[in-house]
Amino acid sequence: ESGANLSESYLLDTLKHVAWHYNCPLCYQQIKETYVSSECLHRFCKDCILQEVSQQNNHHNNGKCPCCDDGTMTTFIPDTQFDTIVSYFLLLIIHARKLRFFSMSILIST
């Protein structure tokens, strides 16, 4: 049983670590409609980064990355592949939770 708990604990820690990368560094929520910097590859919610660029008085999705300190201008572009990865990851979490509940209910009923 301790091996099972260790594996479950490791899996949960890994999922939490990976999930952190799916959060927007501006709003701290799950990224929605991902936009990525063409220079540094930082990712943001579309609305968050377009608002940030607008506040910088820049146009056409060009601006400075709010995560970088070097002031390099970059272009922010949609990243639909990342959105697909996030969707699959969230489905994996939901599936893992259902399996965990299912395996716990089997243990309880036996």
Architecture overview:
- The protein is an alpha+beta fold and 110 residues long.
- The protein is 54% helix and 15% strand.
- The protein contains three helices and four strands.
- A four-stranded antiparallel sheet has the order 2-1-4-3, sandwiched between helices.
- The longest helix is centred in the last third of the chain and has 30 residues, at 80-109.
- The radius of gyration is 19 Å and the shape is elongated.
Question: Topology of this structure?
Answer:
Layout: H1 2-20, E1 34-37, E2 43-45, H2 46-55, E3 62-64, E4 73-78, H3 80-109
Antiparallel strand pairs: 1-2, 1-4, 3-4
Which structural traits does this protein have?
3 helices, disordered C terminus, 4-stranded antiparallel sheet, 110 residues, single chain, alpha+beta, elongated
Mean pLDDT over all positions: 79
How does the major sheet shape up?
4 strands, antiparallel
Q: How far from one another are the termini? A: 16 Å
Q: How many distinct helices?
A: 3
Gyration radius from CA atoms, angstroms: 19 Å
Shape: elongated
The side-by-side strand order for the widest beta sheet comes to 2-1-4-3
| Residues in helices, as a percent range | 40-55%
Structural class: alpha+beta
Number of strand elements: 4
Q: State the order of secondary-structure elements, H for helix, E for strand.
A: HEEHEEH
In the predicted model, the low-confidence regions spanning at least 5 consecutive residues are 104-110
β-strand amount: 5-15%
